[in-house]
Amino acid sequence: MTTTATPRKTPVKAAVASFMGSAVEYYDFFLFGSAAALIFPVIFFPSGDDAALVMSFATFGFAYIARPFGAVILGHFGDRIGRQKVLMFTLLMMGISTFIIGCLPTFEQIGWFAPGLLVLCRLMQGLSAAGEQAGASSLTLEHAPDDRRSFFTSWTLTGTQGGQILAALVFIPVVALPDDIKFTWGWRVPFWLSAVVVLVAFFIRRSLNETPEFEAAKASGDIARMPLIPLLRDHWRDVIRVICCAFIAAVSTVFGNLALAYGVEVGLAQSLTLWLVVVANIVALGTQPLFGRLADKIGRKPVFIYGALSSAVFMPFYMLSMSGDSTLLTFALAILTFSGGYAAANAVWPSFYGEMFSTRVRFSGMAIGTQLGFLMAGFAPSIVAALGGVAEGGWVVISIFTAVISLIAAVSALTARETKSVPTAELGLRAERLHADA
User: Fold this and answer.
1) Would you list the domain boundaries of the chain?
2) In angstroms, rounded to a whole number, what is the distance separating the alpha carbons of residues 436 and 28?
3) Tens digit of pLDDT for each residue in 64-121?
4) Considering the entire predicted model, what is its pTM?
5) What distance lies between CA 113 and its chain's CA centroid?
6) Rounded distance, CA 408 to CA 309, Å?
7) Quick one: CA torsion of 253, 259, 264, 266, rounded to 10 degrees?
8) What average pLDDT is seen over the chain?
9) Which CATH number fits domain 11-437: 3.40.50.300, 2.60.40.3880, 1.20.1250.20, 3.30.379.10?
10) Reduced DSSP (H G I as helix, E B as strand, rest coil) percent helix, strand, coil of the chain, to 5
11) Among 3, 23, 141, 279, which residue is least crowded by beta carbons within 10 Å?
């Protein structure tokens, strides 16, 4: 009689694969955000239209409409057939849709069909992104040792910072081009380059094994036929909690997209606004793993809540500095706001959210909860822009918006159970036992 050996945990390999995959996915995702702020209002909408920026930011938000639907679909298959297979699919979908964006005709060439096609491609990006972070976080969490789950899963979100850095660095020479090049073929090159980075990440991720936790559940027959049913039956409180906590992601889109437009409005050069994003994200590459280690020592809740509240406190100072005379002060406050504040919540949420759910519904729970919450992040730029957030004095609107969503996330986190000391095999089972005993 032969037995199948339980797969070995490979936390470092899982973290590297998650980092690379997330970097590629979010290179594509944030590339669109930079273009939505600086390029798309000119080429995909009527020239001279005052509403072009708001409509351009709305196309950025359309991905977040697709993401909840993608979360249900990809979450189902992630909990049914495995994390690794779904992550390969999301990577390819993101790469293809991004490459197509670089080939689209402009408004001048085909009129309103141009933004229509742009929205379709953005919806494909949203479907892909819906499964990426939840899948990568679930995979890394289940490969990690019990006492270092937060540290290893933090590399998934550190990968998103790497993607944002790469997107901004690629876009800096684009915005420096003469307009006749920038708005014709120059802006397309970064989108075409996604094909190269997708191939690199594909070969890295292909070699990663499925998680021991999932394989054990599969071997014991503990795989839900319809993961959505036990998720909503046993974990509905946690899904609502994750939705509200995930509002904190709006800080990232305000910082990385809306602030670009506001900075230009108050007199900063386009290239300088992009460098603010690059520098803050480079520093976050170092601070996020540190916040992950801290959460393994003192708990997920205090680190997450600090990240949410500090984002609200630091944001108005950062926005005000953009209209000041000191570029050095603006860079310092950008680093403080993003790398020293928001990065804490960003690093910890993969373990914080993932540990609320059991193995049989973890992918679905994280994907659905985060993607519904991320709707706020997706439409934050267009909402705040419509309220006057990119006009002179718009820092007040931006700061109030940031404070409200940060407070909602912090209060929601307060209601969660601390899970840093719970063994991986026991995560999420408390809610299921409560239902079984009822």
Assistant:
1) 11-437
2) 43
3) 788 888 899 999 988 988 888 888 888 888 888 889 999 999 988 998 999 999 999 9
4) 0.84
5) 28
6) 10
7) 160
8) 86
9) 1.20.1250.20
10) 80, 0, 20
11) 3
